[in-house]
Design brief:
Elements (H helix, E strand, L loop, with lengths): L13 H18 L3 H15 L5 H11 L3 E5 L5 H15 L2 E5 L2 H7 L6 E4 L6 H10 L1 E6 L4 H7 L7 E5 L15 H11 L4 E5 L23 H18 L4 E4 L15 H4 L1
Parallel strand pairs: 1-2, 1-6, 2-3, 3-4, 4-5, 6-7
Helix pairs in contact: 1-9, 8-9
Length: 269
């Protein structure tokens, strides 16, 4: 893998811009999203983060991730088994660990703190998010359905918090690309040019994992399977448009993801 001499951390992620240009409108129309509400939530997040200096955080993340292996844990049904299967790899190889929302809860229970957590704030406890922001970094996502969570939870995170959106970037709230927490975590990881992205706990099937459930009482979204399908398509879009990054999939079960070889834990170790 070849790198530019310096990674431009001030620029808007190009693959994120491409994702918004080519996929967002199709996702919006398929799921009946209200783009105006997505914009309003982005602007709410902007009002909370506009005075945040995130260049230092981006520099630290880049130093820990660029040219190095990363594991992105989704919160699918395979998550518990995948964490157990990868404990030795994490302990021996010390990859950069990234959690998608409720996966941070599962990792914490297993004795690991994610280096970076990607969350739309509905599946991970505030206490775990606070711990993740103190010992790592939290990329909080704002969309049309979680404005109240952004309003109430984001201010409770003490430090190391960055904002993401699925509409146009409004610095410091950026569109890195991706639709669900899991595939968005891969988009964010790819921005920092790791040598390898291993995905785990990303089943993308119809069954939800216990760590992906909404902890604030919201009813199960009947369009959840369609959301996961768009998350899978988004991840496949990333793989196609980010050929410099190598991907491997160790998710125990779940569906096949085009462009990612599926391997056993032992092969990775």
């Amino acid at each position: 893998m070849s790198y530019s001499k310096d990674l431009d951390l001030t620029s808007s992620p190009k693959v994120g811009e491409l994702w918004r240009a080519l996929l967002y409108s199709s996702i919006r129309d398929a799921l009946g999203l209200d783009e105006r509400m997505d914009i309003a939530c982005r602007d709410l997040m902007y009002s909370q983060l506009k005075n945040t200096k995130n260049q230092k955080a981006l520099t630290i993340i880049s130093a820990g991730l660029r040219g190095k292996p990363a594991i992105v844990f989704g919160a699918g049904p395979s998550l518990d088994e995948d964490i157990e299967g990868l404990e030795e790899y994490i302990s021996r190889k010390h990859p950069f660990v990234i959690a998608a929302d409720g996966a941070a809860e599962a990792l914490s229970e297993a004795g690991f703190i994610a280096n970076l957590t990607v969350s739309d704030l509905d599946s991970c406890s505030v206490e775990t998010l606070q711990q993740c922001s103190q010992k790592g970094f939290v990329f909080a996502h704002g969309h049309g359905d979680n404005s109240e969570l952004v309003r109430t939870i984001l201010p409770q995170l003490p430090s190391n918090k960055l904002g993401t959106t699925q509409v146009a970037t409004r610095e410091p709230v950026r569109n890195f690309g991706g639709f669900t927490d899991g595939d968005r975590a891969c988009f964010i990881a790819s921005f920092f040019e790791p040598s390898l992205i291993v995905i785990a706990g990303m089943d993308f099937g119809e069954k939800e994992g216990r760590y992906s459930l909404n902890r604030y009482g919201a009813a199960r979204n009947p369009k959840r399977p369609l959301k996961l399908e768009w998350g899978k398509r988004s991840l496949e879009f990333l793989i196609q448009n980010c050929p410099a990054v190598r991907f491997q999939n160790v998710t125990k079960n779940g569906v096949e993801i085009r462009g990612i070889p599926k391997i056993a834990y032992e092969e990775l170790i």
